[in-house]
UniProtKB/TrEMBL annotation:
<dbReference type="GO" id="GO:0046872">
    <property type="term" value="F:metal ion binding"/>
</dbReference>
<dbReference type="GO" id="GO:0051287">
    <property type="term" value="F:NAD binding"/>
</dbReference>
<dbReference type="Pfam" id="PF04166">
    <property type="entry name" value="PdxA"/>
</dbReference>
<dbReference type="InterPro" id="IPR005255">
    <property type="entry name" value="PdxA_fam"/>
</dbReference>
<keyword id="KW-0560">Oxidoreductase</keyword>
<keyword id="KW-0520">NAD</keyword>
<keyword id="KW-0479">Metal-binding</keyword>
<dbReference type="GO" id="GO:0050570">
    <property type="term" value="F:4-hydroxythreonine-4-phosphate dehydrogenase activity"/>
</dbReference>
<protein>
    <submittedName>
        <fullName>4-hydroxythreonine-4-phosphate dehydrogenase</fullName>
        <ecNumber>1.1.1.262</ecNumber>
    </submittedName>
</protein>
<comment type="similarity">
    <text>Belongs to the PdxA family. PdxA2 subfamily.</text>
</comment>
Amino acid sequence: MTATTQAGVPTLALTLGDVAGIGPEITARTLLEHDELRTICRPVVIGDAEALRRAVTGVLGRDAGLVRVVDRPADATNDPGTIEVVQDGPPLGHVPYGELSPDAGDAAARFVMRACDLARAGEVDGIVTAPLNKAAMHAGGHHWPGHTELLAHEFGVDNFSLVLSAGELYFFHLTTHVSLRDAITGVSAERTDNVLRLVGSFAGALGTPDEAIGVAGLNPHAGENRLFGDEDADVLEPAVRRATAAGINAVGPLPADALIPQAVNGKWRFVVVCYHDQGHAPFKAVYGDDGVNITVGLPVVRVSVDHGTAFDIAGTGVAREASLVLAARRAAELAPGWHQVWETARSAAAS
């Protein structure tokens, strides 16, 4: 029996993120001030009760008794006005706000690992992640570029993509948390083929297998017939042709400065970008708190906020929870049908 069938709604593991950042306070606000989420999911925090109580009392001015420790997600009652947390590791109330802490970085990674364990055991149906700090995670002994790569490692998958989403718009990334120099190398024929198959399978799982997929060029003007680089002609164009031959409606490479505004205005639903800032900068400028980060290619749905730990405002009470609320909502919507997404993605990767 899955967590979904036990509760009637999907059970979501909300990882607390870096407790020196805004993760605890936005998690507390999400669960104490948005009771409507309880009708579509059963949210259970994977993290630290002390850090949550500090946020509840010191930031929100509420009663510490609203935080309740449970042994496992199945023990959660999903009562409005409560925060139910599976404690992982030692208490972290000593970690100061706004300072890089190896203890917090280690814990943030462990929270994600615990959520993956629970997903593999069928105890949760989805994972929603508050932000972690990459430098702190590295200082804590976990040397991953970010959440996405850690999750892929935990689930043992090779073909995956960070996907920024707002409404029905999805930005898939060929490369993410690497230098720009490494990103150019990372836009390889194999990686492009894999991501185009991933997008095609995701579009099919969403019921739109023939939807056009816009592929952004790597160089300005998509290379302008090799005037501004050869990668578009040598790597991206052949990959688009191969995808088309395989029945994937890929188009491009197209100049990113034309493609992305067209996508924002509704012409494209699925977009492939080449590197982190090519997708993240315009996406965040347009959508802000209305966007989330989805990892496609995992056996369980994972949705995250599209912002960082915000050490500069942690503990001050001004952090907004809107992106985390949206992430939980999107995870709850996607979780029941995610098996089809995973199976189609896995089949595409094996082809």
